[in-house]
């Protein structure tokens, strides 16, 4: 029997807006597994719209910086503005076009399923890179030697999370559990509650530690809240008014169709296999280097001699003072510093047979594949000599490993019993 409940104008407008707002923000899921071709098409669609808004509101002819490691670029903010405008105007047009329709209960049913699975996939993805400490990694010697005041707010948060694998695991586990609960209809409300709570905390950390994922984390939280909206009255009665409540009455779509019941189970199994099992295995493999033995070349170094084009200069602004060769989680990294304020981070691969370090600029655009090769010589595990070229400059660096230090942060450990607070 068809549902003849007549929605109010406000009810329709809110639904139309949510449908368009969440739909535009989550698209092209689940086609995003195709990768770059899909994102290139999406970028071509948004480019003229975002450039138009940039010209109108910011007096910019073109927004040249595309989304990258930051999800809060000018491009992203203008895209959100465009989505809000499209969703608002689209809601009015939709209201006029569907003015004779009583409700959209079936469309609500499909939207909830779509958002459930989108949020589940995202929570599982973000959760698993914390269960395996890949997102924040582990504390490096660079961070241990760095002064607290020299850290960015985001760097402080990353260091805080990197300190404890246990806390990383717990945070990731909560996201994984929330994602798994969202996959099943009967546990959707619990999964949405947990997702909204977890993402509220993530959003607040992003907001107050200046992490450039504020937009994304905010509307992930909004998806959780939207999924809870269907149970708002029941939740209010149970948690606030302390009154009994009845089970929700879900609309039945193809309930009597065997092909639909079987298809739903097959798709659910495939979804779990792709978003959980496959990602679990992939992250497990990616985390293997964390516990792999390190070469003797790793460690903190003090630069004793720096030559550029065979010239030694104590006033060279590019002269390195300290070099930290380390592993942050599963990623090998080199950090370099000097007294002129230079703080540089590069990724590297090590060929211990040919004694070659291949580096690339971590901060460079993704399209920049420039690599710098240095030969190295390590004597008595203490002195390291690098020789190579950076662009047109020949570089020679002689450095000595710093004496080991027992940092309180890494040696204090955990104590069940504390007779007095140890807040140092």
From TrEMBL:
Keywords: Membrane, Transmembrane, Transmembrane helix. It comes from the Bacteria. The chain crosses the membrane at residues 13-31, 77-97, 117-136, 156-183, 190-209, 215-232, 265-284. This is DoxX family protein.
């Amino acid at each position: 029997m068809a549902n003849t409940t007549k929605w109010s104008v406000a009810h329709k407008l809110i639904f139309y807006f949510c449908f368009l707002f969440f739909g535009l923000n989550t698209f092209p899921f689940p086609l995003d597994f195709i990768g770059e071709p899909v994102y290139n098409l999406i970028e071509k669609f948004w480019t003229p719209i975002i450039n138009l808004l940039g010209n109108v509101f910011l007096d910019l002819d073109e927004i040249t910086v595309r989304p990258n490691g930051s999800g809060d670029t000018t491009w992203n903010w203008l895209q959100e503005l465009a989505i809000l405008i499209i969703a608002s105007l689209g809601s009015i047009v939709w209201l006029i076009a569907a003015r004779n329709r009583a409700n959209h209960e079936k469309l609500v049913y499909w939207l909830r399923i779509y958002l459930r699975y989108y949020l589940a996939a995202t929570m599982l993805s973000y959760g698993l890179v914390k269960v395996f400490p890949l997102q924040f990694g582990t504390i490096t010697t660079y961070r241990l030697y760095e002064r607290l005041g020299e850290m960015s707010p985001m760097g402080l948060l990353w260091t805080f999370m990197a300190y404890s694998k246990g806390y990383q695991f717990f945070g990731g586990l909560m996201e994984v559990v929330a994602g798994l609960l969202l996959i099943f209809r009967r546990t959707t409300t619990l999964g949405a509650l947990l997702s909204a709570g977890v993402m509220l905390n993530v959003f607040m950390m992003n907001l107050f530690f200046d992490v450039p994922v504020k937009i994304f984390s905010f509307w992930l939280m909004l998806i959780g809240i939207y999924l809870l909206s269907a149970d708002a009255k029941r939740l209010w009665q149970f948690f606030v008014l302390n009154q009994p409540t009845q089970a929700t009455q879900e609309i039945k779509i193809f309930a009597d169709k065997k092909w639909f019941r079987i298809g739903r189970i097959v798709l659910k199994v495939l979804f779990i296999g792709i978003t959980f099992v496959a990602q679990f295995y992939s992250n497990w493999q990616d985390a293997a280097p964390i516990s792999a033995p390190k070469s003797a070349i790793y460690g903190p170094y003090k630069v004793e001699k720096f030559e550029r084009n065979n010239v030694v200069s104590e006033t060279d602004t590019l002269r390195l003072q300290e070099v930290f060769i380390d592993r942050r989680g599963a990623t090998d990294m080199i950090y370099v510093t000097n007294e002129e304020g230079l703080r540089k981070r590069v990724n590297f691969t090590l060929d211990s047979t040919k004694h070659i370090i291949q580096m690339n600029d971590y901060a460079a655009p993704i399209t920049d594949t420039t690599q710098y090769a240095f030969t190295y010589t390590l004597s008595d595990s203490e002195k390291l000599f690098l020789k190579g070229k950076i662009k047109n400059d020949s570089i020679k660096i002689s450095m000595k490993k710093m004496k080991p230090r027992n940092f309180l942060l890494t040696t204090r450990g955990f104590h069940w019993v504390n007779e007095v607070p140890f807040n140092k």
